[in-house]
Amino acid sequence: MSTLHPLIPMLQSRQDEDASTLGQKFSDQVQRVLQRSMQIRHLDAGSCNGCDWEIQSLLCPAYDMQRLGLDIVASPRHADCLLVTGSVTRHLEIAAIRTWEAMPAPGIVIAVGACACGGGVLQGSYCTAGGVKNVLPVDISIPGCPPRPQALLHGLMLALDRIEQKLHHSNHEFRIGRSEA
Amino acid sequence: MRVLRQSMRGRVGAHDYPLEPEAAPAAFRGQVQLDPNRCRGDAACARVCPSGAITVEETSTGWIWQLDDSRCVFCGLCADACANRAVSLSNAFELAVRQPDDMVTRAEFIRNEETD
Ligand code: SF4
Ligand code: SF4
Fold first, then answer.
1. How many domains does chain A have?
2. Which tens digits make up the pLDDT trace of B81-114?
3. Measured in angstroms, how far is the CA atom of residue B74 from the centroid of ligand 2?
4. What distances in angstroms separate CA A81 from CA A39, A94, B41, B80, one per listed residue?
5. CATH number reported for the structural domain that contains residue A100 in this entry
6. Which of B3, B87, B95 to mutate against chain A (most A CBs within 10 Å)?
7. Structural domain that includes position A132
Protein backbone atom coordinates (compact mmCIF):
# COMPACT_ATOMS: atom_id res chain seq x y z
CA MET A 1 0.00 0.00 0.00
CA SER A 2 1.26 3.43 -0.84
CA THR A 3 0.92 6.14 1.75
CA LEU A 4 -1.07 9.16 0.68
CA HIS A 5 0.55 12.52 0.67
CA PRO A 6 -1.50 14.82 2.94
CA LEU A 7 -1.87 17.38 0.15
CA ILE A 8 -3.65 15.09 -2.32
CA PRO A 9 -6.63 17.07 -3.56
CA MET A 10 -10.05 15.48 -3.39
CA LEU A 11 -10.91 14.76 -6.99
CA GLN A 12 -14.61 15.41 -6.58
CA SER A 13 -14.38 18.61 -4.58
CA ARG A 14 -13.60 20.85 -7.51
CA GLN A 15 -17.17 21.73 -8.49
CA ASP A 16 -17.30 24.93 -6.52
CA GLU A 17 -20.61 26.17 -7.95
CA ASP A 18 -23.86 24.36 -7.25
CA ALA A 19 -25.71 24.37 -10.56
CA SER A 20 -29.21 24.09 -9.16
CA THR A 21 -29.04 27.12 -6.87
CA LEU A 22 -27.30 29.14 -9.56
CA GLY A 23 -29.86 28.20 -12.20
CA GLN A 24 -32.85 29.15 -10.10
CA LYS A 25 -31.89 32.79 -10.18
CA PHE A 26 -30.24 32.78 -13.54
CA SER A 27 -32.86 34.55 -15.68
CA ASP A 28 -33.30 37.18 -12.97
CA GLN A 29 -29.59 37.67 -12.86
CA VAL A 30 -29.41 38.15 -16.64
CA GLN A 31 -32.05 40.85 -16.38
CA ARG A 32 -30.37 42.53 -13.45
CA VAL A 33 -26.87 42.54 -14.92
CA LEU A 34 -27.58 43.36 -18.54
CA GLN A 35 -31.18 44.69 -18.56
CA ARG A 36 -31.71 42.44 -21.61
CA SER A 37 -30.73 38.96 -22.82
CA MET A 38 -27.15 37.84 -22.85
CA GLN A 39 -25.92 37.91 -26.43
CA ILE A 40 -23.43 35.26 -27.44
CA ARG A 41 -21.28 35.08 -30.52
CA HIS A 42 -19.93 31.71 -31.57
CA LEU A 43 -16.56 31.58 -33.29
CA ASP A 44 -15.30 28.38 -34.86
CA ALA A 45 -11.52 28.55 -34.72
CA GLY A 46 -10.69 25.20 -36.28
CA SER A 47 -12.91 22.78 -34.40
CA CYS A 48 -14.07 19.39 -35.65
CA ASN A 49 -17.71 20.59 -35.41
CA GLY A 50 -18.46 18.37 -32.41
CA CYS A 51 -18.52 21.34 -30.06
CA ASP A 52 -20.41 23.44 -32.60
CA TRP A 53 -23.20 20.90 -32.73
CA GLU A 54 -23.50 20.90 -28.97
CA ILE A 55 -23.77 24.70 -29.02
CA GLN A 56 -26.35 24.48 -31.79
CA SER A 57 -28.35 21.97 -29.73
CA LEU A 58 -28.73 24.62 -27.03
CA LEU A 59 -30.98 26.48 -29.47
CA CYS A 60 -33.15 23.40 -30.11
CA PRO A 61 -36.43 22.97 -28.23
CA ALA A 62 -34.85 20.32 -26.02
CA TYR A 63 -32.47 22.73 -24.32
CA ASP A 64 -34.10 25.99 -25.36
CA MET A 65 -31.57 28.44 -24.03
CA GLN A 66 -33.68 31.41 -25.08
CA ARG A 67 -36.05 30.72 -22.21
CA LEU A 68 -33.15 31.59 -19.90
CA GLY A 69 -32.36 34.86 -21.64
CA LEU A 70 -29.44 33.65 -23.70
CA ASP A 71 -29.20 34.03 -27.44
CA ILE A 72 -26.70 33.54 -30.23
CA VAL A 73 -26.24 36.62 -32.38
CA ALA A 74 -24.85 37.05 -35.84
CA SER A 75 -22.15 39.62 -35.18
CA PRO A 76 -19.47 40.06 -32.55
CA ARG A 77 -20.44 43.73 -32.40
CA HIS A 78 -23.66 42.73 -30.64
CA ALA A 79 -22.10 40.16 -28.37
CA ASP A 80 -21.44 40.12 -24.64
CA CYS A 81 -19.43 36.98 -24.82
CA LEU A 82 -17.56 34.99 -27.38
CA LEU A 83 -17.76 31.20 -27.46
CA VAL A 84 -14.62 29.94 -29.15
CA THR A 85 -14.38 26.32 -30.26
CA GLY A 86 -11.31 24.65 -31.73
CA SER A 87 -7.67 25.08 -30.96
CA VAL A 88 -7.15 28.25 -33.08
CA THR A 89 -5.45 27.18 -36.26
CA ARG A 90 -2.86 29.45 -37.81
CA HIS A 91 -5.25 30.65 -40.48
CA LEU A 92 -7.89 31.62 -37.94
CA GLU A 93 -5.61 33.33 -35.46
CA ILE A 94 -6.06 36.75 -37.06
CA ALA A 95 -9.79 36.17 -37.45
CA ALA A 96 -10.06 35.34 -33.76
CA ILE A 97 -8.19 38.46 -32.72
CA ARG A 98 -10.25 40.67 -35.02
CA THR A 99 -13.48 39.19 -33.70
CA TRP A 100 -12.34 39.91 -30.16
CA GLU A 101 -11.42 43.47 -31.07
CA ALA A 102 -14.85 44.01 -32.62
CA MET A 103 -16.61 43.11 -29.39
CA PRO A 104 -17.85 45.87 -27.09
CA ALA A 105 -16.34 46.04 -23.59
CA PRO A 106 -16.46 44.15 -21.33
CA GLY A 107 -16.39 41.26 -23.79
CA ILE A 108 -15.58 37.92 -22.28
CA VAL A 109 -14.11 34.88 -23.98
CA ILE A 110 -15.27 31.33 -23.27
CA ALA A 111 -13.14 28.44 -24.48
CA VAL A 112 -15.40 25.50 -25.35
CA GLY A 113 -14.04 21.98 -25.61
CA ALA A 114 -10.74 20.27 -25.05
CA CYS A 115 -9.25 21.82 -28.19
CA ALA A 116 -10.03 25.37 -27.10
CA CYS A 117 -9.04 24.85 -23.47
CA GLY A 118 -5.62 23.34 -23.95
CA GLY A 119 -5.21 22.07 -27.48
CA GLY A 120 -6.77 18.66 -26.85
CA VAL A 121 -5.37 15.98 -29.13
CA LEU A 122 -3.89 18.71 -31.33
CA GLN A 123 -1.62 19.98 -28.56
CA GLY A 124 1.87 20.64 -29.85
CA SER A 125 0.90 20.57 -33.50
CA TYR A 126 2.74 22.97 -35.81
CA CYS A 127 -0.47 24.41 -37.27
CA THR A 128 -2.41 25.38 -34.17
CA ALA A 129 -1.87 27.85 -31.37
CA GLY A 130 -2.57 25.07 -28.85
CA GLY A 131 -5.63 26.58 -27.23
CA VAL A 132 -7.46 29.88 -27.15
CA LYS A 133 -5.55 31.03 -24.08
CA ASN A 134 -2.45 31.52 -26.20
CA VAL A 135 -4.27 33.99 -28.44
CA LEU A 136 -7.05 35.66 -26.44
CA PRO A 137 -7.61 36.36 -22.73
CA VAL A 138 -9.87 33.45 -21.75
CA ASP A 139 -12.31 34.08 -18.89
CA ILE A 140 -14.07 30.71 -18.68
CA SER A 141 -12.94 27.30 -19.89
CA ILE A 142 -15.42 24.49 -20.48
CA PRO A 143 -13.56 21.21 -20.94
CA GLY A 144 -15.18 18.22 -22.63
CA CYS A 145 -14.93 16.65 -26.05
CA PRO A 146 -17.51 17.86 -26.77
CA PRO A 147 -19.00 19.25 -23.55
CA ARG A 148 -22.64 18.30 -22.94
CA PRO A 149 -25.19 21.06 -23.56
CA GLN A 150 -25.78 21.04 -19.81
CA ALA A 151 -22.08 21.61 -19.23
CA LEU A 152 -22.24 24.53 -21.66
CA LEU A 153 -25.14 26.04 -19.73
CA HIS A 154 -23.14 25.65 -16.55
CA GLY A 155 -20.25 27.47 -18.20
CA LEU A 156 -22.53 30.25 -19.43
CA MET A 157 -23.75 30.76 -15.86
CA LEU A 158 -20.19 31.24 -14.72
CA ALA A 159 -19.76 33.60 -17.68
CA LEU A 160 -22.62 35.80 -16.48
CA ASP A 161 -21.01 36.06 -13.07
CA ARG A 162 -17.82 37.10 -14.79
CA ILE A 163 -19.62 39.78 -16.83
CA GLU A 164 -21.18 41.12 -13.64
CA GLN A 165 -17.80 41.19 -12.00
CA LYS A 166 -16.26 43.00 -14.95
CA LEU A 167 -19.05 45.56 -15.21
CA HIS A 168 -18.88 46.40 -11.54
CA HIS A 169 -15.16 46.40 -11.14
CA SER A 170 -14.07 47.73 -14.49
CA ASN A 171 -12.19 50.99 -14.45
CA HIS A 172 -10.79 53.27 -17.06
CA GLU A 173 -7.52 51.39 -17.32
CA PHE A 174 -9.33 48.18 -18.04
CA ARG A 175 -11.13 49.71 -21.00
CA ILE A 176 -7.96 51.17 -22.43
CA GLY A 177 -6.17 47.88 -21.90
CA ARG A 178 -8.84 46.04 -23.81
CA SER A 179 -8.53 48.05 -26.98
CA GLU A 180 -4.84 47.19 -27.08
CA ALA A 181 -5.46 43.45 -26.72
CA MET B 1 -34.79 4.23 -28.34
CA ARG B 2 -35.91 4.60 -24.72
CA VAL B 3 -35.81 8.36 -25.07
CA LEU B 4 -37.83 8.16 -28.29
CA ARG B 5 -40.50 5.99 -26.67
CA GLN B 6 -40.66 8.32 -23.71
CA SER B 7 -41.14 11.36 -25.86
CA MET B 8 -43.87 9.63 -27.89
CA ARG B 9 -45.76 8.84 -24.71
CA GLY B 10 -45.51 12.14 -22.91
CA ARG B 11 -45.46 15.82 -23.56
CA VAL B 12 -42.17 16.93 -25.04
CA GLY B 13 -40.68 19.71 -22.99
CA ALA B 14 -37.31 21.30 -22.60
CA HIS B 15 -34.77 19.74 -20.26
CA ASP B 16 -35.02 21.35 -16.86
CA TYR B 17 -31.28 21.45 -16.53
CA PRO B 18 -30.19 24.70 -14.99
CA LEU B 19 -33.32 24.85 -12.83
CA GLU B 20 -33.06 21.24 -11.70
CA PRO B 21 -29.88 19.22 -11.39
CA GLU B 22 -29.72 16.61 -14.13
CA ALA B 23 -27.51 13.56 -13.91
CA ALA B 24 -25.66 12.34 -16.97
CA PRO B 25 -26.71 8.94 -18.37
CA ALA B 26 -25.09 5.90 -16.77
CA ALA B 27 -22.88 5.18 -19.78
CA PHE B 28 -21.67 8.78 -19.96
CA ARG B 29 -17.92 9.25 -19.97
CA GLY B 30 -17.25 12.16 -17.66
CA GLN B 31 -14.29 13.42 -15.70
CA VAL B 32 -11.46 10.97 -15.10
CA GLN B 33 -11.09 9.97 -11.47
CA LEU B 34 -8.21 8.33 -9.70
CA ASP B 35 -8.61 5.99 -6.75
CA PRO B 36 -5.44 6.93 -4.87
CA ASN B 37 -5.48 3.71 -2.84
CA ARG B 38 -5.13 1.58 -5.95
CA CYS B 39 -2.65 3.59 -8.03
CA ARG B 40 0.78 1.91 -8.19
CA GLY B 41 2.44 4.48 -10.43
CA ASP B 42 3.09 2.15 -13.39
CA ALA B 43 1.99 4.89 -15.83
CA ALA B 44 -0.09 2.62 -18.08
CA CYS B 45 -2.71 5.37 -18.27
CA ALA B 46 -0.17 7.98 -19.29
CA ARG B 47 1.16 5.76 -22.09
CA VAL B 48 -2.19 5.14 -23.77
CA CYS B 49 -3.62 8.65 -23.35
CA PRO B 50 -3.93 10.02 -26.92
CA SER B 51 -3.89 13.66 -25.87
CA GLY B 52 -1.24 13.50 -23.16
CA ALA B 53 -3.71 14.61 -20.52
CA ILE B 54 -2.36 12.21 -17.90
CA THR B 55 1.27 12.36 -16.91
CA VAL B 56 3.00 10.18 -14.35
CA GLU B 57 6.30 11.53 -13.19
CA GLU B 58 8.76 9.51 -11.09
CA THR B 59 10.22 11.33 -8.13
CA SER B 60 12.89 10.24 -5.71
CA THR B 61 10.30 9.23 -3.10
CA GLY B 62 7.39 8.11 -5.24
CA TRP B 63 5.47 9.51 -8.18
CA ILE B 64 3.21 12.36 -9.20
CA TRP B 65 0.03 11.56 -11.11
CA GLN B 66 -1.37 14.54 -12.94
CA LEU B 67 -4.51 14.98 -15.00
CA ASP B 68 -5.11 17.98 -17.23
CA ASP B 69 -8.86 18.24 -17.92
CA SER B 70 -8.19 20.87 -20.52
CA ARG B 71 -6.63 18.22 -22.78
CA CYS B 72 -8.65 15.12 -21.90
CA VAL B 73 -10.96 13.96 -24.69
CA PHE B 74 -12.90 11.54 -22.46
CA CYS B 75 -12.09 8.50 -24.59
CA GLY B 76 -11.80 6.11 -21.64
CA LEU B 77 -8.59 4.42 -22.81
CA CYS B 78 -6.88 5.18 -19.50
CA ALA B 79 -9.58 3.35 -17.56
CA ASP B 80 -9.23 0.34 -19.89
CA ALA B 81 -5.46 0.32 -19.63
CA CYS B 82 -5.18 0.50 -15.85
CA ALA B 83 -4.51 -3.00 -14.55
CA ASN B 84 -5.21 -1.93 -10.96
CA ARG B 85 -8.53 -0.32 -11.85
CA ALA B 86 -7.42 2.87 -10.19
CA VAL B 87 -8.61 5.10 -13.03
CA SER B 88 -12.29 5.37 -13.84
CA LEU B 89 -14.53 7.78 -15.70
CA SER B 90 -17.13 9.40 -13.49
CA ASN B 91 -20.39 11.05 -14.43
CA ALA B 92 -19.21 14.55 -13.61
CA PHE B 93 -19.67 16.94 -16.51
CA GLU B 94 -19.96 20.42 -14.96
CA LEU B 95 -16.29 21.10 -15.37
CA ALA B 96 -16.27 24.76 -16.39
CA VAL B 97 -13.67 26.81 -14.54
CA ARG B 98 -12.38 30.36 -14.46
CA GLN B 99 -8.69 29.73 -14.01
CA PRO B 100 -7.12 27.35 -16.53
CA ASP B 101 -4.93 26.02 -13.71
CA ASP B 102 -8.03 24.70 -11.94
CA MET B 103 -8.41 22.08 -14.65
CA VAL B 104 -5.28 20.30 -13.47
CA THR B 105 -5.60 17.61 -10.81
CA ARG B 106 -2.35 16.61 -9.19
CA ALA B 107 -1.77 13.72 -6.85
CA GLU B 108 1.57 13.20 -5.19
CA PHE B 109 2.40 9.70 -3.98
CA ILE B 110 5.13 8.56 -1.63
CA ARG B 111 6.28 4.99 -2.18
CA ASN B 112 5.98 2.73 0.83
CA GLU B 113 9.00 0.42 0.67
CA GLU B 114 7.63 -2.20 3.09
CA THR B 115 4.59 -3.17 1.07
CA ASP B 116 5.39 -2.21 -2.50
S1 SF4 C 1 -13.02 19.47 -28.18
FE2 SF4 C 1 -13.50 17.54 -29.22
S3 SF4 C 1 -15.53 17.89 -30.09
FE4 SF4 C 1 -14.71 19.92 -29.57
S5 SF4 C 1 -13.69 20.64 -31.44
FE6 SF4 C 1 -12.13 19.59 -30.23
S7 SF4 C 1 -12.11 17.47 -31.01
FE8 SF4 C 1 -14.02 18.43 -31.68
S1 SF4 D 1 -10.10 9.63 -21.06
FE2 SF4 D 1 -8.68 9.47 -22.82
S3 SF4 D 1 -7.89 11.57 -23.10
FE4 SF4 D 1 -8.85 11.52 -21.07
S5 SF4 D 1 -7.16 11.07 -19.67
FE6 SF4 D 1 -8.09 9.08 -20.21
S7 SF4 D 1 -6.89 8.33 -21.98
FE8 SF4 D 1 -6.44 10.54 -21.74
1. 1
2. 999 889 988 888 888 888 888 888 888 888 876 5
3. 5
4. 7, 18, 42, 38
5. 3.40.50.12280
6. B95
7. 33-167
Q: What CATH number labels B29-110?
A: 3.30.70.3270
B89 sits in which H/E element: strand B87-89
Which among B40, B72, B110 has CB closest to A143?
A: B72
Q: B35-67: b or e for each residue (b if 16 or more CB lie within 10 Å)?
A: ebeebbbebbbbeebebbbbebeeeeebbebbb
The stretch B53-63 carries a mean pLDDT of: 89
**pLDDT at residue A52, as a whole number:** 92
A176 belongs to a structural domain: no
List the single residue in A with minimal CA-CA distance to B33.
Answer: A11
ipTM above 0.85 for this complex: no
Percent of chain B residues past pLDDT 70, beyond the cut: 81
CB of B103 less than 8 A from some CB of A = yes
* Residue A179 belongs to some domain of the structure: no
| Overall average pLDDT of the A125-147 stretch | 89
